[in-house]
Design goal:
By secondary structure, the chain is an all-alpha fold. It folds into two domains: about 220 residues, no CATH class; about 130 residues, no CATH class. About 80% of the residues lie in helices and about 0% in strands. The chain has 16 helices and no strands. Helix 2 packs antiparallel against helix 9.
Length: about 475
């Protein structure tokens, strides 16, 4: 007997809400094509997000200079922590949105949207105020060189002020993705990227506003993307628009939203902090020879691109699973997970072969061919390729656990992985050099997959 599903025809909720758009439902229809339809826009968005940051770096380097570029690097370490926490919180909240959408309860969905806006928006505003008040102390805490302090502070003053727009965009974009609309946010991100390039060039190269101009371009681009998302929802997805009836704080939703958002934010921030600690380990072996830093930077750029495919697959699986869990169809959710896992693992196998056999030409994209740092980069890529299928396996399980609402599993899995990666990197780096980071990362992936598989099969046994 099949579980009850929400009707897929447009309907109006009992509270006077707006009609549900049929094409966004993932609770029936061809699973593979739906997953591909979710995944491809998410992949493009992840790649564009990387270009978003690279654009500012290129303009700063060309028109301001090396010191400003170094200050930008310092400032981005602070900015990225804010962004990871905000995106994590919005990601956690969007799981509930997807479940309520699959359930067909639009009134509850909009109340959830209101609660998320108040809680995550309020926390963002508080963090922004604290960041502005204690910015000098924060920059001193991360040991910012005195000659970079002024530029880093100027940049962060503007970026922190614009962080409310970063929240608004991520909140609205994650909402659209939760209901299956992954294309709209991509289009708006593409438009804002084009605007960011033009605005940064005008403010820096023409008006000579220095690093502050770069920050203004970034903040205003975030405002533009958030505005476009809001206008799109009002016009094309009106069932997501919060009404006066929806604007109330439900105690149950507050507890669930706080739990989901906080755990997801902690997961994302721990992931970022782990990257910073690993970078510190690499810096430690580069006191005499700077080649490992250059090699690791190049390898990280290659990995950021390849991992975008796994992350996009993870997000697509999470959205699909969450909607079907909300609809009460766990069998279809499992089918989607299995199909998604097949797609993600196939991609992972391709990149494992690519990194192993094409490490030298890939490193030459960023480094001088035949140089020591290029050789170190190629060696790192070959070693990390041995574990790549495990990394992509981990992405699929994160999608499953996130979609089923088990945010605590994703948090503990990520934390476990980071602890192993960081500890092993510091222990092995003196004897193995940069290769130690590759093996430590692989060891972390082994552990997280064992943890995820154990939890997954224990839960399956309880249900049978």
């Amino acid at each position: 007997m099949k579980p009850n599903r929400p009707p897929l025809r447009p309907r109006t909720t009992s509270t006077g809400g707006h009609a549900v758009s049929r094409p966004l439902h993932l609770t029936s229809g061809p699973i593979t094509s739906q997953l591909l339809g979710l995944c491809l826009p998410l992949l493009c968005a992840n790649v564009l997000q990387q270009l978003y940051n690279i654009a500012n770096s290129l303009i700063v380097t060309r028109y301001i200079g090396g010191q400003a570029f170094a200050a930008l690097g310092v400032a981005e370490s602070v900015m990225n922590l804010y962004i990871y926490v905000i995106t994590g919180a919005c990601m956690g909240s969007s799981v509930l949105i997807a479940q309520f959408y699959g359930e067909g309860d639009m009134a509850k969905l909009r109340r959830q949207l209101y609660v998320s806006a108040v809680l995550i928006g309020g926390c963002t505003l508080t963090a922004v105020v604290l960041g502005q008040l204690f910015l000098p102390q924060l920059l001193a805490l991360i040991q910012t060189p005195q000659e970079l302090m002024a530029d880093a502070a100027h940049y962060l003053r503007v970026i922190l002020a614009g962080m409310v727009f970063t929240f608004a965009y991520n909140y609205l974009a994650s909402t659209l993705r939760a209901v299956g609309d992954t294309r709209a946010a991509l289009y708006f991100l593409l438009l804002s990227l084009g605007y960011n390039l033009i605005a940064a060039w005008l403010l820096v190269a023409v008006l000579d506003l220095g690093i502050t101009g770069t920050a203004l371009a970034t903040a205003s681009a975030q405002f533009l993307s958030a505005l476009l998302c809001a206008l799109y929802i009002k016009k094309r997805r009106p069932f997501l628009a919060i009404t006066r009836q929806d604007a109330r704080l439900d105690a149950t939703l507050i507890r669930r939203t706080s739990s989901y958002a906080a755990v997801a934010a902690l997961q994302q921030s721990s992931l970022y902090l782990g990257k910073l600690l690993i970078q510190s380990a690499v810096n430690g072996i580069s006191l005499v020879d700077s080649a490992p830093i250059s090699a690791f930077a190049a390898a990280t750029r290659v990995e950021n691109f390849t991992q975008a495919f796994g992350i996009s697959g993870c997000e697509a699986i999470a959205i699909f699973v969450a909607q079907n869990v909300g609809a009460g169809d766990r069998k279809r959710a499992l089918q989607g997970f299995a199909r998604g896992a097949g797609m993600v693992l196939s991609t992972g196998a391709f990149f494992a072969l690519l990194l192993f056999f094409a490490g030298v030409p890939l490193s030459s994209l960023f480094l001088q061919p035949g140089s020591r740092d290029a050789a170190l980069c190629a060696s790192y890529l070959r070693n990390i390729a041995l574990f790549y299928l495990l990394s992509f396996t981990g992405h699929t399980f994160v999608g499953w656990f996130r979609g089923t609402g088990r945010m605590n599993i994703t948090f503990w899995g990520t934390t476990l992985q980071i602890v192993v990666r960081v500890t092993a990197s510091y222990l092995l780096v003196d004897s193995l050099g940069l290769d130690a980071v590759a093996f430590a990362t692989g060891g972390g992936w082994v552990l997280i997959v064992v943890f995820q598989l154990t939890v997954f099969f224990l839960e399956r046994r309880k249900q049978t």
